[in-house]
């Protein structure tokens, strides 16, 4: 029954779209975004059971609608032969050549800010003490006494 209702929904959408470019004329509306977000994955994904996908593919105007939106708004993924751009692997597609350096600098600035706050607020303090056995400085943590 679910497939039957979905097929009926697709058929009604196809009838409503007719030969128009979008559901409400020549410019897209929020309904177009909603319908496309449901149809495109159904049209493009590899599904274990393709009954509904086959029905969608039989509705040429809905297929053309999806292809048109893909080409118009997603030219890098527009489907078969519509793309003038080629996708590169993620590690080659970095737009900023100094991205890694900026990330490292951000981490270092954040670390310095946290350490500065910890020292200034008294969370961490450095105390000079006597040198312990074998030339090592003893590790001791003293609790601060509250003055009243």
UniProtKB/TrEMBL annotation:
Q: Which GO terms describe its biological process?
A: mitochondrion organization
Keywords tagged on the record: Membrane, Transmembrane, Transmembrane helix
What cellular component terms from Gene Ontology apply here?
SAM complex
- Positions of the Metaxin glutathione S-transferase domain: 6-69
TM regions (residue ranges)? 104-126
- The protein's superkingdom reads Eukaryota
Among the Pfam families in the record, one is GST_C_6
Q: Which PANTHER family match?
A: METAXIN RELATED, METAXIN-1
Q: What is this protein called?
A: MTX1 protein
